[in-house]
Amino acid sequence: MIDLVIFDFDGVVVDSEVASNGLLAEIATELGHPMDMSGAVRFFGGSTLFQQLEKLAMLAGGKLPEDFGTALQERTMSALAAVQPLPGLEHFLDWLGPLPICIGSTSAPERIEFCLDAAGLSDRFSGNVFSVSMVGRNKPAPDIFLHAAERMGTSPQRCLVIEDSPHGVVAGRAAGMGVIGLAAASHLAAGHPERLLAAGADHVAESYGEVRQLMQRHFGFAAAR
């Protein structure tokens, strides 16, 4: 039985990766390294803001202007101002009913809260937002998921992680949690479900309707809550 569902954020709660990675591709191109959105997904995927700045500094020859980080945050927020929930997410949350939920993400807390507000989802997660910035290591280490479980008062073995990245899947499995890989976001390329399974996902879904079916079939949810 599952007592807590932990959602990754970008590509799982909000469909933000096209906007954010499109911006990163634009900035990389401005730094003299032409890149498209799919290239940005490969190069920056799963990075924290600090790691993004490190990678951009590498592209820039080792150094960025002093105000570059602030400018990047401002441009990112502007790009994400119209972000939307993943299709079917809100119906899925309604179905979960009183089951505790939270977010465990590589993104900064301020970015998560901004996107939740923009997408009209702030009330859904009631402040239960946990970021890699709160723990020692980024995914694929399990730190963020273990931290979320501890803060929510739940045993890792009774948690279910919903993830869209291979690194996130590895992190969830390393935390001893069940993992459903979600391949529903608009930025994902062909073959992504197979990559999630190869990373160790228990099951893979391509919509929240399929996530619901998997939870009923494999995780003890015999009826809607």
Automatic annotation (TrEMBL):
GO terms for molecular function: hydrolase activity. InterPro entries: Beta-PGM-like, HAD-like_sf, HAD-SF_hydro_IA, HAD_sf, PGP-like_dom2. It comes from the Bacteria. Its cofactor is Mg(2+). Keywords: Hydrolase, Magnesium, Metal-binding. SUPFAM superfamilies: HAD-like. Pfam families: Hydrolase. Belongs to the HAD-like hydrolase superfamily. CbbY/CbbZ/Gph/YieH family. This is HAD family hydrolase.
